[in-house]
């Protein structure tokens, strides 16, 4: 109850049971309770006397369960009778305002008597779905002015709640004999679509359908089971609709009125293209897994109310998503026979083409699902930006860590600050309760002893980092603006042997190439690495090559692990990580600054490791490979792959410095997506050219007939993989 329920004698209430007291007992309580004029508060002793009188001096005349008014399964006639009896008792038996004046607490009775336990048992299921939104606010000084009698107030609040609209609860019904995993799958997809701060998601269990008072306490019911719906359950679901409820059906047998389900076995577990009509009357095409059923309209009077929302793009134009209104209270249902709710990893896919089609449509699947939820009255606004968290100073080497702390003592100002135009860092020894964290000023905790994170293991990072200097000093944060800014104030001052890296779980302002924003959900590997390159060196004379080396390092961090060599992870010119040549799952951003004869380079790289949605991640590819090859390769983690990427990169830089481009290009070509590809230059009607390779400076080489080979500069052009176009970038 969000700490809104308070007692002035320090007792903590655990259970609430409301009972009606006989007139004789009320008189006793009136005699025990002190006069308002004599005393404004009740002592603990007097409170105990009142409690004893309430427990032992009372016979329960009639039970009015609080939650009954939030949706009791009793009939409307019984409920009406109960309310009339309650009103009569309130008028004749309640303590008057003179006896309990404004500003007094109504002390709560935590009963354990036999009658109250019976009430509790009959009530506990009823309160299960009660929303905290319906609890009246208490004032900050805990002296609410109860200007009406308590029972009248509760009754008035109950009526207000039911008239104002349903509590923001979403219930998921997954049938009678299904595993919790199926509920969690549906819950997970809904949580990624709706505003998580606005709705609470529960499972509606089989035994609760007919008993629990969920009908008045839910905004949306999701039916996600293919098993038959019993007649009794169907009646309950229709009752929910008649009271203004909303139903979303995922491949279920539930239907009503002008629509019926027809089974088409040839469609079961097949992937088909469908066309969905959006709210703005536009259409969207995507590929989805079909349940094996379609909808058919039946000739009835209200057939005009049935609105097909999606049809298969086949000869029969089969209806697979439909909208059905019901009743006069705003009830409506959207029923689907395509699997909008299923993550691709949770279903058996027939072919590699099916996997590719579903993954390519994954973003559109979310778009369609959000459209449906919005049309049913839910908010799908983006969640609030998470709060920034402190930075932890970590190291894979204790000796280097101590050397860094010694360096810090000599380089911070009197306030412990290292200032920068992008973000200033304030170094503190331990976490402080009133620590200031803003986009321009962040605290860095230097003691490693108290560090722990659900998403990052320093031990795993240490085990996989095998470098001479890169990535030795870590600045780690759960949530930061962008890792690209964290090293700005340190990189020009720090000794070269102390290789800096910034790692985050989430970014609120992630940066991409050309000013693009990089989305950074949990599950991405997000980091910025600092390296120095001498101007007069092989790589110093070919700085554009760095982004290619980093992209290659990311791919090799996975494909160099024994058993993972055939995971379909590739590089795309100039700076992207791809699944095959189909979908992007990572990218690289390089910023370089030349000071005298040394390049200071910040390398930002991010790639999807364990976040399947909204597109694809490395662990999706591992799962797919395991299914196809019958292997049991383990899922990988961001901490492991960041460390392996830095390790591979250091070795690639060493090879390049020694041998130049020819030392690494054969490895780059092994994993790039462009071999033998023909493209058009500049526009869809532009001249045809063949991709040849990369020149000595890292620029893409193309061969246009009649013109020979020319180089394409990465900063002036982009590669449109979907159209096989090389397009000039315009500022």
From TrEMBL:
Family matches, as CDD domains: BPL
Domain BPL/LPL catalytic residue range list: 459-657
Keywords recorded for this protein, A-Z: Ligase
SUPFAM superfamilies listed in its UniProt record: Class II aaRS and biotin synthetases
Keyword field contains Ligase: yes
Region (Disordered): 68-106
Single GO MF annotation: biotin--[biotin carboxyl-carrier protein] ligase activity
Source organism, top-level taxon: Eukaryota
GO CC annotation, single: cytoplasm
Gene3D superfamilies, alphabetized: Bira Bifunctional Protein, Domain 2
One Pfam family hit: BPL_N
Annotated Basic and acidic residues bias: 78-105
NCBIfam families per the UniProt record, alphabetical: birA_ligase
Protein family membership: Belongs to the biotin--protein ligase family.
Protein name: Holocarboxylase synthetase
Organism of derivation: Apteryx owenii (Little spotted kiwi)
């Amino acid at each position: 109850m969000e700490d809104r329920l308070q007692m002035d004698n320090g007792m903590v209430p655990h259970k609430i049971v409301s009972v009606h007291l006989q007139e004789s007992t009320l008189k006793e309580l009136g005699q025990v309770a002190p006069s308002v004029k004599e005393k404004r508060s009740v002592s603990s002793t007097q409170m105990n006397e009142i409690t004893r009188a309430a427990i032992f001096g009372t016979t329960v005349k009639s039970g009015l369960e609080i939650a009954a008014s939030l949706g009791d399964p009793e009939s409307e006639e019984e409920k009406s009778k109960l309310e009339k009896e309650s009103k009569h008792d309130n008028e004749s038996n309640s303590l008057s305002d003179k006896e309990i004046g404004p500003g007094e607490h109504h002390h709560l009775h935590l009963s354990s008597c036999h009658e109250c336990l019976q009430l509790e048992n009959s009530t506990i299921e009823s309160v299960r779905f009660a929303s905290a939104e319906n609890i009246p606010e208490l004032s900050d000084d805990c002296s609410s002015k109860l200007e009406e009698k308590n029972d009248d107030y509760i009754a008035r609040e109950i009526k207000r709640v039911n008239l104002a609209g349903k509590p923001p609860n979403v219930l998921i019904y997954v049938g009678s004999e299904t595993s919790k995993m199926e509920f969690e799958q549906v819950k997970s997809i809904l949580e990624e679509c709706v505003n998580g701060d606005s709705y609470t998601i529960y499972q509606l269990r089989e035994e609760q359908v007919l008993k629990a008072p969920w009908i008045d306490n839910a905004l949306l019911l999701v039916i996600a089971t293919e098993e038959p719906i019993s007649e009794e359950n169907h009646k309950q679901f229709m009752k929910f609709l008649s009271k203004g409820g909303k139903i979303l059906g995922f491949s279920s047998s539930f239907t009503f009125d002008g629509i019926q389900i027809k089974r088409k076995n040839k469609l079961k577990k097949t992937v088909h293209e469908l066309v969905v009509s959006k709210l703005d009357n536009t259409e969207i095409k995507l590929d989805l897994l079909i349940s094996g059923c379609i909808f058919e309209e039946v000739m009835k009077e209200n057939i005009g109310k049935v609105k097909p929302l999606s049809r298969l793009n086949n000869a029969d134009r089969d209806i697979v998503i439909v909208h059905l209104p019901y009743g006069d209270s705003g009830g409506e249902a959207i029923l689907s026979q395509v699997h909008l709710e299923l993550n691709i990893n949770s279903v058996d896919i027939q072919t590699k083409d099916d996997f590719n089609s579903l993954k390519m449509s994954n973003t559109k699947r979310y778009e369609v699902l959000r459209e449906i939820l919005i049309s049913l009255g839910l908010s799908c606004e983006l969640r609030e930006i998470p709060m920034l968290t402190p930075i932890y100073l970590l190291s894979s080497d204790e000796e280097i860590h101590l050397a860094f702390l010694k360096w810090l003592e000599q380089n911070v100002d009197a306030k412990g600050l290292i200032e920068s135009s992008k973000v200033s860092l304030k170094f503190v020894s331990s976490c402080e309760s009133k620590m200031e964290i803003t986009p321009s000023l962040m605290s860095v905790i230097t003691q490693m002893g108290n560090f722990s994170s659900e998403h990052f293991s320093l031990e795993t990072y240490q085990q996989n980092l095998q470098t001479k200097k890169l990535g030795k000093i870590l600045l780690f944060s759960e949530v930061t603006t962008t890792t690209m800014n964290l090293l700005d104030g340190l990189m020009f001052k720090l000794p070269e042997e102390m290789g800096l890296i910034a790692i985050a779980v989430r970014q609120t302002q992630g940066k991409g190439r050309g000013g693009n924003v990089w989305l950074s959900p949990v599950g991405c590997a997000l980091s910025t690495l600092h390296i120095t390159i001498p101007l007069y060196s092989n790589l110093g004379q070919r700085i554009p090559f760095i982004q290619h080396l980093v992209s290659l390092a990311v791919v090799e961090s996975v494909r160099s692990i024994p058993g993972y060599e055939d995971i379909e992870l590739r590089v795309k010119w100039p700076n992207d990580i791809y699944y095959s040549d189909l979908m992007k799952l990572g990218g690289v951003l390089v910023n370089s600054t030349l000071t005298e004869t040394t390049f200071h380079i910040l390398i930002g790289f991010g790639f999807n490791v364990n976040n399947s949605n909204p597109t694809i991640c490395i662990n999706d590819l591992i799962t797919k490979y395991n299914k196809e090859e019958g292997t049991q390769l383990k899922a990988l983690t961001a901490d492991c792959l960041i460390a392996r990427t830095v390790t591979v990169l250091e070795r690639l830089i060493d090879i390049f410095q020694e041998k130049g481009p020819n030392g690494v290009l054969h490895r780059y070509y092994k994993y790039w997506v462009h071999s033998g590809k023909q493209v058009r230059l500049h526009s869809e009607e532009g001249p045809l050219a063949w991709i040849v390779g990369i020149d000595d400076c890292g620029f893409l080489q193309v061969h246009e007939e009649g013109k020979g080979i020319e180089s394409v500069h990465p900063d002036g052009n982009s590669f449109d993989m979907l159209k096989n176009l090389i397009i000039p970038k315009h500022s």
